[in-house]
Amino acid sequence: MPQLSSESVPPYSATESVDPEPEMPSQRDSTCDLSTCIGEPDVSPSITQGMSDDDLDAFVSHLPYKAQIILYGNWQSLEYDSEVNAEMACICSLYRKGLRYDDIERLFNSYPGTGNYQELRQKDSIGASWYLRASYDKAIEWLSSNNSPIPDICEMIEQWIWAKGWPGRTGSTDRAVYIAHIRIVERAFSLIHAASVRDIAIRAGVGPITAGRSSHRLCRKGLLKLVEKSQGGQCMCLATHSASRSCWRRLDVS
């Protein structure tokens, strides 16, 4: 996802890449003419126009899992280092699902989100609108130059992970470890990803030995495929496997 922040962070390596970070738009005062500082208005029809609040809640429940988490204010459970980065990730996710600016603005106005936009809105509604539109335009720009299907695949797999039952004593551990792998895939923009046991353990909230054993169980289940293993046994190069194949087919990716 693009990251909107006042600090520049270089991209991660192929091992685990962070998204390119656009510049933070400067703050405009309340007299700013929005027509002069935002992009062209969308001509796409609004999806949420005319929806009641109850209908909107039902609509949100069918959005990508990560977008729901951010909209409902639980963004800190995800791996974003700031509120603005989480907002940008949410905008990208919503845009990929067909929502346009009017829809996204209504969702940001209706749900707590990270709190950053709501705080700006309370202080200066026009400045907040400019900020949201600038973020939206930056997200479209980033998506147009980074049209990899990997983010869509990761969203599909993560929704599948949460919908799937994970029975047994190790079920919840395997789910957490698999999600950790998917988060690395999303940042690396590659299904084949280098994942150290220690990194997986930290992300999943388990010990290194547990993370290694869980990763091997996921391999046996066909959810991961071990491509290469280091001599020291600490670094595994894995490809998300059977769950991702159906996602590739659904996305018509050869």
How does this structure look, described?
The protein has 254 residues and is mainly alpha-helical. The chain folds into two domains: 34-145; 150-250, Winged helix-like DNA-binding domain superfamily/Winged helix DNA-binding domain (Arc Repressor Mutant, subunit A, Orthogonal Bundle). Helix content is 53%, strand content 7%. The chain has twelve helices and three strands. The protein has a three-stranded antiparallel beta sheet. Helix 4 (83-96) crosses helix 7, helix 9 (171-188) crosses helix 10 and helix 10 packs across helix 11 (208-220).
Number of DSSP-assigned strands: 3
- Determine the fraction of residues in helical runs and give it as a percent range: 40-55%
Spatial gap, N to C terminus:
23 Å
Element order: H for helix, E for strand: HHHHHHHHHEHHEEH
Computed structural class:
mainly alpha
Rg on CA atoms, Å:
19 Å
Spatial order of strands in the largest sheet:
1-3-2
- Sheet with the most strands, sense and barrel status: 3 strands, antiparallel
Q: Choose one word for the global shape.
A: elongated
What's the pLDDT, averaged over the residues?
Answer: 74
| Whole-number count of domains | 2
Tally of alpha and pi helices: 12
Query: Ranges with pLDDT <50 over ≥5 residues?
Result: 1-43, 242-254
Proportion of residues in β-strands: 5-15%
Write the layout of secondary structure elements.
Blueprint: H1 34-37, H2 53-60, H3 65-71, H4 83-96, H5 101-110, H6 116-123, H7 125-145, H8 150-163, H9 171-188, E1 192-196, H10 197-204, H11 208-220, E2 224-229, E3 235-240, H12 242-250
